[in-house]
């Protein structure tokens, strides 16, 4: 298989180059993206994407329910709607959040075009260029992209297998304050974090909330995977412990289907008002038909039982990945053992560079996301994110086998020629969220 | 009927007041909004909204087509999609634009969450705070809101019944350049403009393109109503005359249905690339199911014949409005006679103030949008926008009768007590796009 040339465009050919906004400079198509295009070929096992597997949804029953929806309420469902989101949709979202012990009022919810837009609107409401956003080290590539798009400075806070380290958070706040920086919020994914799969313990949640309160720090809690627990019951959300100081982001993409693009923000009342006005300037209103469709699903189907079906399906896939890693990884490689969600985070032995090896991995018909994508500061070269959400279990297992082979060859090259001898390492920060869904 | 108190919130009660971004200050709920909530009561004839009338869509046939779509292709239609928009959707958009003589390639199209998001993304790509955007005087309230959200300076360019005045455009460019301002683009709605209903003549189109080329000015052409011609054939789009220098915004909201939230940008290639990356940071991808639904509609239905049905329906409504205005308006009142679209623009006699009279009009069971909403500079107090898109013809006629009564009383008050005697005029710039769709 031949690999494409890096797709980086020569911006000298762009006649609009002097007309763009400051925030637009540096927006370029990354070389990694071109690789992902190749990784989508059927012969490649892609452990790179974050696409949920929705094959188990009851398509025929859904088709019939939506048929009735259009026949009976089509004139409303296909019309403009509320900038805040439809009231019946927000009532249903209150029910969904109650599964994670959140007590909320529908009036404090703003429906968004997927939870990516929730992230975008929250950043837009709070962040001026140069403002600091704190994020776990590592964090979701799509969030880092949004923070960059608003010209924020991203400061990572260390985490371990229990989540964000409280002392690291406290130290960051003290140091940044001393440096005169404006810290706007802490962005955190407490459950089955993307990319590490780590879940914050209850103790850590309390500690983080206490530190945030002490320092007047707003918490933005992103929780797309919280209900996809594979072992225990869902943990209480940060928002359930502190209603005043947490902006909560939710999504139907993983518990139902992403193609409708419906997510939401639950925010303190004053913030909610700004978000609605911002949503109106951004889209007039979030997708209306999608809201009718999802509310119909939540009304007429046993959505909790469907989540159980998803849990069983993802558990089998996670187990296939953990078994494959156990059987095929090199000595010196370690990885997380997630209790839910989609992702395993791998630490490679010294001398290996995940981004440099990606082209050779794709040639060996396996793809992953290099760890550097999840850091704003260039770290992550000895990490990779593996997703167990999309390929079937036997393919996942085979993918880890191929990956094991690639790692073995890489390590041999390193031992023979030294670091970076086989291929120079191109540090590429411009990877956007797209590979995350492909 | 009692009217609500203005909904302006006391921001001193907002604990987050110091945390917001610069762009968020000044985002407040306007008093006009509260009035519009009252205007939505069934006894009020609302000539204020911009909602299309979609009752004529073939709902049962659509329901059946979408039923098959979900049964047969649901796994793709409900999954994540491309940040640029689905290829089959972009192919269909090329066909739609060909109706207005645009020759385009699907690769240069970016699908958006309604054309409001197209406007948002284009502004985000080009505009830093303080940059100037030129817009017709008056212009679409939702566009002004977006430009303000990106902290642009909006400079209006005079228009007459033939569209933008070329000399006014040239003078604005020269003056702004001399003042050291960065002008990022001209925002224009050439067909059945919102709010005036005016259509740029072919001669004006050529003149505007020539001036733009001469001054290196980008044109953003917003064309949601272009195919809703009520008299002649659609005019050639500006984009059809200059592919290099025009960013074109389109929408399915008025030729099909707004609830799917699908619009698009057609942009020169380099700009298109920035827009895709920006779209990914904003939403990951535009609504996928909506794109499948609309492409299904365009594939399986005679959408051109449906536009003819819409044209006949809107023509009858426009004629009812023009007849009503002719029968009921005060002497000294003038108005535009649109050849398509949704809107008539009214100039009131001296002494009348459209925003000040709105509460009394709503009490008299008729609503309109005050002209001030469509100006960034406080003008428009002697104007109102009347929409003929949503109420049935007899209600539209009755609405103009009620409006005539209100104007008569207002003029009597003015003649008796002088300007502003009956109620002080609250200049309210914060009106957002929401009333436009309600």
Number of strands of chain A: 14
Q: Structural class per helix/strand content of chain A?
A: alpha/beta
Q: How are helices and strands ordered from N to C of chain A?
A: HEHHEHEHEEHEHEHEEHHHEEHEEEHH
Helix content of chain A: 40-55%
How many helices of chain A? The count is 14
Mean pLDDT of chain A: 91
What's the quaternary structure here?
homodimer
Strand order of the largest sheet of chain A: 2-9-8-7-6-3-4-5
Strand content of chain A: 5-15%
Explain what this protein looks like in three dimensions.
The structure is a homodimer of 438-residue chains. Chain A has 438 residues and is α/β, with parallel strands linked by helices. Chain A is 42% helix and 13% strand. The first copy, chain A, is built from 14 helices and 14 strands. In chain A, the strands form 3 sheets. Chain A has an 8-stranded mixed β-sheet with strand order 2-9-8-7-6-3-4-5, with helices on both faces. Chain A has a 4-stranded antiparallel β-sheet with strand order 10-11-14-13. In chain A, helix 8 links the parallel strand 7 and strand 8 (246-251). In chain A, helix 1 (31-39) runs parallel beside helix 12 (354-363), helix 4 (114-126) packs parallel to helix 5 (141-149) and helix 4 (114-126) packs across helix 9 (269-283). The two termini of chain A are 20 Å apart. Chains A and B meet through helix 2, helix 4, helix 5, helix 9 and helix 10 of A and helix 2, helix 4, helix 5, helix 9 and helix 10 of B.
